[in-house]
Amino acid sequence: MHSFTLIFLAAVVLTTGIQLWLATRQKRAVETHRDVVPEAFRDRISLEAHQKAADYTRAKLQFGGFELLFSTAVLLLWTLGGGLNVLDTLWRGFGWSQITTGVAFMLSVFVIVSLLGLPASLYQTFVIEERFGFNRTNLKTFFVDLLKSGLLLLVIGTPFLWLVLWLMGSMGPSWWLYVWLTYMALSLGMLWLYPSVIAPLFNKFSPLADETLKQRIDQLLKRCGFSNNGIFVMDGSRRSSHGNAYFTGMGKNKRIVFFDTLTDSLDHDEIEAVLAHELGHFKKKHVTKRILIMALASLAGLALLGWLAQTQWFYTALGVEQGSTYMALMLFLLVMPVFSFLLTPVFSAYSRKHEFEADEFAAQNSDADKLTSALVKLYEENAKTLTPDNVYSAFYDSHPPAPIRIQHLAQAKG
């Protein structure tokens, strides 16, 4: 057995074990505190809502454990089990050019992976989300969304894959640099197009009709020196009762989007405070910093792939007999998450830092108490646990745990 095969198996066992251990810690933490609302929230969140959040968290963790084991088994079947090798042999049998074969091969892998994950998506939506009162979609909408996503993959993914594989085969040893430039161009283009072209394929976006709220938001934007391409309300309630707000797009194509569930549950002061938090991300250049990190990480990853693609052991150690540009890319996409998993807490900590900074900005430009009350409402409505395990939270959470975040807001206000 090749040494890299052993390294890969060890990494799979390690990362799977860590994820199961973390899930066990989280499950134990929410179960231990299920019957007592944390003191800081007792006057704002009922015991019933607190218990619902604990039960919802536990249900997702239990199902997530099954998903993890299933996805791990699928990964091993694709690689060491010979799945990729069999599929590659099948497509090579048509006698097409390497680029055409590669595009067909990669698209077929994506389709198979999506189909294998379909039962889990259905269970998550129509069992877990339904059980806790969050699901508002139906099978027709679910499968129409799936069809639209598949068509987008074909329309955007096919020419992109063709170009990437052409660059890999035509640009010599430095192909990875050209692929990186192409990937960044596509990523930035998609960020720009998403608000006006892609998102409307799935949801309806209506201009904010509440003139009083709109005037308050315009005043906040003016105070913060922020320009945008409109304030919109999204029909999120068609699919879920979860509430949210976000900025989308870049440059002059930026939009502010509120879920209709959010505007129904928060008052104007709270909505302004939530928006001030989101503005903080832009004013602190968090979006730009994250794009830069993504750019550097993808550049490093493609440089590594440029080296791995030239080594025969990379293929044979992962169950593939014949190397190719498209097989190198597919193996890298499947295997790299196993090795990059241990970086998760680093990126999580960086994200939490940004959330604290955005909260501080909101406290300076709006009512911190109103942001606190809005966050408490969102924690309750989205059934977010108030008692996460510290280690689990440090590893995964992109946002600070509720008690720490509320305490930080109180300090920022003072």
Task: Outline the structure in words.
The relative contact order is 0.12. Helix content is 72%, strand content 4%. A four-stranded mixed β-sheet has the order 1-2-4-3. The protein has helices spanning 3-32, 47-78, 83-92, 98-131, 139-170, 175-198, 211-224, 260-265, 268-283, 286-308, 312-316, 325-340, 344-365, 368-381, 390-396, 402-413, and strands spanning 205-207, 231-234, 245-248, 255-259. The chain has two domains: 3-200 and 288-343, no CATH class; 204-286 and 347-413, Metalloproteases ("zincins"), catalytic domain (Zincin-like), CATH 3.30.2010.10. The chain has 16 helices and four strands. The mean pLDDT is 92. It is mainly alpha-helical and 414 residues long. The protein is globular.
